[in-house]
Amino acid sequence: MNAQEPAPTRRGLSTPEELLTVPQVMARLQLGRSAVYDLLRTRQFASITLGRARRIPAHALADFIRTRLEQEAAA
Q: Per the database record, which ranges form the Helix-turn-helix domain (predicted)?
């Protein structure tokens, strides 16, 4: 590999994946804590657990929003 080429990363990203906290997702969706945990429980968007902390990849939140917009447009 050329020294000037960035190392390949998962999903083709050159930067680390942004992980959001539940309060950050609450703020972005303007939802309460229970509603966000319900979405996590029903696997409507992906998350990971690090120790006792739950983190949601930013792309998972974006995918969730995009899917919901497409569903609303199709209805």
A: 19-68
